[in-house]
Specification:
225 residues, 9 strands, 7-stranded mixed beta sheet, alpha/beta, 16% strand
């Protein structure tokens, strides 16, 4: 299978150490023997901290995005280091480069691409661009809930949802650089128009990626209309 996996920066950079990079490398290396893998990594807390500085400098949201994108690419380089020769050792800056690098037969790892696109959106666009069989979004929660599980103890996990219903859920959310929302509208639009098979699950345990690929019941599955 051709798989695009988005790994949240908040998953990879919980502390400033190599732990999660190593854990993901251990999972991704054997997976790459069976599947064609494209990985998109987020910026996490470091990106938000830098964006705060840029915002305080009143440089505008596009510049905030630009700085955040650079941080995602640093995280991508760190994951490339952990993957060693199993990955193409260059971070693509756009989707065409990602597709070209994949011809090496190695794992492709990238970060952000351009302002106003979260790495969730980048992963969804990439999945459409390379005609992926599966998009897996590895985030800091177990899947999509009917309300924020970090704030509400009675939040319920949604096992399946259509892209249209996701759009309604996300509508009106804040899309400034560095803000965290569960998923952004561009990503959902890509999933809807391409009928992308998508699974959203907790990335704190890298083995959940294997479960999602194997079709096990985990997280939230975005189903066709």
């Amino acid at each position: 299978m051709r798989i695009v996996a988005a790994i949240g920066g908040s998953i990879l950079i919980q502390e400033f150490d190599s732990k999660k990079f190593k854990e993901y490398a251990e999972i991704l290396k054997p997976l790459s023997e069976e599947h064609e893998l494209f990985i998109v990594v987020g910026g996490g807390k470091p990106a938000r901290e830098y964006i705060k500085v840029v915002r305080d400098l009143e440089c505008g949201e596009a510049k905030c995005d630009d700085i955040g994108i650079e941080v995602t690419r640093i995280n991508a380089k760190l994951l490339l280091s952990a993957l060693e020769n199993k990955a193409y050792q260059k971070v693509p800056h756009n989707f065409q480069e990602a597709l070209e690098y994949s011809s090496s037969g190695k794992i492709v790892v990238m970060g952000g691409t351009e302002p106003a696109h979260s790495t969730d959106a980048v992963a969804a666009i990439l999945a459409e661009y390379v005609k992926a069989d599966l998009l897996v979004n590895l985030t800091s929660v177990d899947g999509m809930y009917n309300k924020d599980p970090n704030k509400f103890s009675d939040a319920e996990l949604i096992n399946e949802i259509t892209a249209s219903d996701m759009m309604e859920f996300i509508k009106g959310k804040d899309v400034k650089a560095g803000t965290y929302e569960f998923f952004d509208m561009t990503a959902i639009q890509m999933i809807k128009r391409s009928s992308l098979e998508t699974v959203i699950c907790n990335g704190d345990n890298p083995k959940n990626l294997i479960k999602a690929i194997n079709g096990e019941k985990i997280g939230t599955k975005v189903i066709s209309e």
